[in-house]
């Protein structure tokens, strides 16, 4: 077994590693984490929040002295990515909430990431500065100008080490291209372009060009009255720079090929599962709406998340998914209440592990679920302060549906629907996961023996 | 006529007719309520002829009501979530279609209006009240007015299946005044036009629109909501503070985008 990439058998135990964020219950809404993303090496972990801030954590170098302690993530950089704006023409506020962060692959010493709110995408450069020039001729050590008359010698400034400073600078601002709310961004495998998707359109950008973008998908009907479907998520294929997928509110996924035409309104492949007539209700369409779509690392599969299930699709089979996992089927009988309190519209994300053998998604009551595709085993874990002792092993949780409730089980009616895990991330190569629970970020690792 | 709070007068209806109608309308509404109070059970039982139906219809109706309320969020400072709105609107359409198919559409509607008036009254009334307060109208609708909002969902359900799909909705243009009322389909279309325009004021006017259809008494009496082209221009004016006190910053009156921009400029 390859260390670090485990198969989720009963041998894999998840332990608490760290939690970031405030403890008090009255934390402000601005602190609510709205996106979590590891970079391509797993060295950095970025979070975005409702207040428009981005916080980047860096994994500390593993020390040989402390073998039992895997590298911890510490704050590396914090910056305000987006500010609240006001659209004067429409008299509406534009939220500063960061909807998505996507890292660019590292090409030099600096790190680059894309962050987006509802309307504007920004490219940020995060770089370190650990040296500074000293010995200027015209300025003194504090930076004040020296009187030229007092200068009698010339010297060459030298670079001297300084305390590490991490600075984030906005390098590009991609604005004014979206009428509707951006829900996804995805970096292309060519590393030169990326796409941004809103409810009705998808635009293709070149990183170097901010004043124009290409519209590649447009599902806006000529008559808005005929609108019945919106785009909910989109992603580029990890290897084929011409392919991308986008999901819809009607539970369908379309694979498009940009070589076919400039405007990819006609899909190459159309993935839809036929409806189960026995399960039909007024809420069928709502719960079929796909909230997230992710390619596997291999590029062979796509995973979709709808309200009650996670599905894995083979790109070569359009008529149904190859795997379906129930996330919280006990909610099926509560759909009316969940519609009433709007929980039915919650958008849960889903993630693959590095080897595409395990998938993870969130649920309510700060529960999150993992499904092992090989063993077909699944586990429910909880992100809570109670299990927050260092290296404490997480105990599997269970929801009891009816009848007798066992000691450690929790009944459906006791679930806290305000505690929802919408955003999670999995380290690209190791069993380290980041789980966002409202304003707290939990980091769990598998047990090191 | 513009000054009559809470009532709009259809363009093609004369004042006398309105007065009589208004009275009739109120009485009709009251009559409805009384009747339904008496015949509650019969109505329910007679709905589909089978006792199994009523509770499903009730559920379906309450789901419809809930959906309508969800689509009418008055206090929005941020653009509404389009995905959510589309999903709710699709749910509403689904219910409509089913109700039209099993024929409960027309039958249930007038009775449905009176059936559970209080619940609806509370929700829509509270929403109405807050909207009207902001628009500088009378703070609380009196009992007479209070009844008519009951008819909203009921009225909304009156249109026949044809009315649902009728091209009347296509008459709904972005910049034209909200002249074509009636027809539940309208409400949905308005919602999307609203979302298209994304004026926060249009959320109020969206709500105002639905309110107006409450007063489409002609339609109720003749059972032909969809087809009546009662002009509501003046009625809308009664709702919108176009010439009244300056609207609050978050509630704009019924203006197109251009008018809106001009208004902002003029105000500042």
UniProtKB/TrEMBL annotation, chain A:
GO molecular function: protein phosphatase regulator activity
Gene3D superfamilies: YVTN repeat-like/Quinoprotein amine dehydrogenase (2.130.10.10)
Entry-linked SMART domains: WD40
Keywords associated with the record: Repeat, WD repeat
One GO term describing the cellular component: protein phosphatase type 2A complex
InterPro entries on file: PP2A_PR55, PP2A_PR55_CS, WD40/YVTN_repeat-like_dom_sf, WD40_repeat_dom_sf, WD40_rpt
Family that this chain belongs to: Belongs to the phosphatase 2A regulatory subunit B family.
PANTHER family found in the cross-reference section: PROTEIN PHOSPHATASE PP2A REGULATORY SUBUNIT B
Official protein name in the record: Serine/threonine-protein phosphatase 2A 55 kDa regulatory subunit B
Species in which this protein is naturally found: Zalophus californianus
From TrEMBL, chain B:
Gene Ontology CC annotations of this record: nucleus
Ranges of biased composition (kind: Basic and acidic residues): 133-148
GO biological process: cell division
Keywords: Cell cycle, Cell division
Residue ranges with Low complexity bias: 238-250
Domain of life of the native organism: Eukaryota
Segments crossing the lipid bilayer: none
This protein's record includes keyword Translocase: no
Chain residue ranges for the region called Disordered: 133-154, 227-252
Record domain SERTA: where: 56-103
Name of the featured protein: Cell division cycle-associated protein 4 isoform X2
Organism whose genome encodes this protein: Callorhinus ursinus (Northern fur seal)
